[in-house]
């Protein structure tokens, strides 16, 4: 066979464990380790002149795009308009002449993403695509392709494509920051070094699979699960909830931690696990205080953080998953690993069809 499970029970497990290698491959398409600089493909956007970037995608690729918005803003000072493709394609987007539009897609065949791309082109935008399948429709119709070297992804629930999309998008945002003069050469070098560490950190995070499996057996008993995070980890909370519902059929919602008090806190009781994605970044204390509000209402908090982050959170956690310390803005690349493993093992505990979940397709080529 062209692809096999390589000793794993499911393609999804194989693809989760391939991440250190394929993230490194993807990074090698963009960064030069010797000079510690980024290089973008020929004909990429003229970031210095761009006044706005429109980003669009569906599903997991959309969450990768949402994370990139934080990167483009922080590193490049570039305003980003982002929406899911099925909305963007029908909106009256006030595109400006000479603008840029970036589409993110594993398959390159998602009908809504392709239609949003065509609409943006018709409205005079230059089109770029972060895409995994180079011979796909989206790759063919884009002016420039930003490659992601995830290799074939078979499991319907996207895993390695997500982290490779993140790796590619981070590189593009750093290059944009250099072009726009927001990052100097030293800042670029520091980010290149931080990115080059991510494959090793993902491998370390994956080594915790055994403990995550034990926690997942308890999550499998839940009817509803909440995921919360702030900043770059807010879209990762959305992705965590998506992954869990896709393959375990447990109802899950992702929320910005600061928004809990505006609704979802009403759902909290002793049966609702709340998964808190909180690396020790500038927002750590805010997120931990939201977690304490959940705990004060009898909620079961599962904290995902590094060793110090777990120690500082104090007593009363239901469970914790220790994750390696990583550059704060790159946390989603590494924290994706426990998020994916949690969904995977919850689904295997329930005995669902992990690689072929009911009602879902790998690539949605109809509207
Ligand atoms: C389907 C898949 C998802 C994927 C989404 C977008 O819903 O099940 O895993 O994220 O399509 O697919 P794309 O190929 O455009 O990234």
UniProtKB/TrEMBL annotation:
GO terms for cellular component: cytosol. The active site is at residue 362. It comes from the Bacteria. It catalyses: D-fructose 6-phosphate + L-glutamine = D-glucosamine 6-phosphate + L-glutamate. Signal peptide: none annotated. GO terms for biological process: amino sugar biosynthetic process; carbohydrate metabolic process; fructose 6-phosphate metabolic process; protein N-linked glycosylation; UDP-N-acetylglucosamine metabolic process. Residues 43-182, 215-357 form the SIS domain. One of its GO terms (molecular function) is glutamine-fructose-6-phosphate transaminase (isomerizing) activity. The keyword Phosphoprotein does not apply. Homodimer. This is Glutamine--fructose-6-phosphate aminotransferase [isomerizing]. It comes from Amphiplicatus metriothermophilus.
């Amino acid at each position: 066979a062209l692809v096999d499970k390589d000793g794993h029970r499911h393609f999804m497990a194989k693809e989760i464990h391939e991440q250190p290698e394929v993230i490194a491959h993807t990074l090698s398409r963009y960064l030069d380790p010797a000079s510690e600089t980024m290089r973008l493909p020929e004909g990429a956007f003229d970031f210095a002149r761009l006044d706005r970037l429109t980003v669009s995608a569906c599903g997991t690729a959309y969450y990768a795009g949402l994370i990139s918005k934080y990167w483009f803003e922080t590193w490049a000072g570039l305003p980003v308009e982002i929406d899911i493709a099925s909305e963007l394609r029908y909106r009256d987007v006030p595109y400006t002449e000479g603008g840029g539009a970036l589409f993110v897609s594993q398959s390159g065949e998602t009908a809504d993403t392709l239609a949003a791309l065509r609409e943006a082109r018709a409205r005079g935008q230059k089109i770029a695509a972060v895409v995994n399948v180079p011979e796909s429709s989206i790759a063919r119709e884009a002016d420039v392709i930003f490659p992601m070297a995830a290799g074939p992804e078979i499991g319907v629930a996207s895993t390695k494509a997500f982290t490779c999309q993140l790796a590619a998008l981070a590189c593009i945002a750093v290059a944009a920051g250099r072009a726009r003069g927001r990052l100097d050469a030293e800042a670029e070098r520091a980010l290149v070094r931080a990115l080059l560490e991510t494959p090793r950190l993902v491998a370390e995070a994956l080594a915790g699979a055994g403990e995550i499996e034990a926690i997942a057996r308890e999550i499998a008993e839940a009817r509803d699960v909440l995921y919360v995070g702030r900043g770059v980890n807010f879209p990762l909370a959305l992705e965590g909830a998506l992954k869990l519902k896709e393959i375990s059929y447990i109802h899950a919602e992702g929320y910005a931690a600061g928004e809990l008090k505006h609704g979802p806190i009403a759902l909290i009781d002793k049966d609702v696990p709340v998964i808190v994605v909180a690396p020790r970044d500038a927002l750590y204390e805010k997120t931990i205080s939201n977690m304490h509000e959940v705990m004060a209402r009898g909620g079961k908090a599962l904290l995902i953080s590094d060793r110090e982050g777990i120690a500082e959170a104090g007593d009363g956690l239901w469970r914790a998953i220790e994750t390696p310390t990583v550059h704060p803005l790159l946390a989603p690349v590494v924290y994706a690993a426990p998020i994916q493993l949690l969904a995977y093992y919850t689904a295997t505990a329930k005995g669902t069809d992990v690689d072929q979940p009911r009602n879902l397709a790998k690539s949605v080529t109809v509207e």
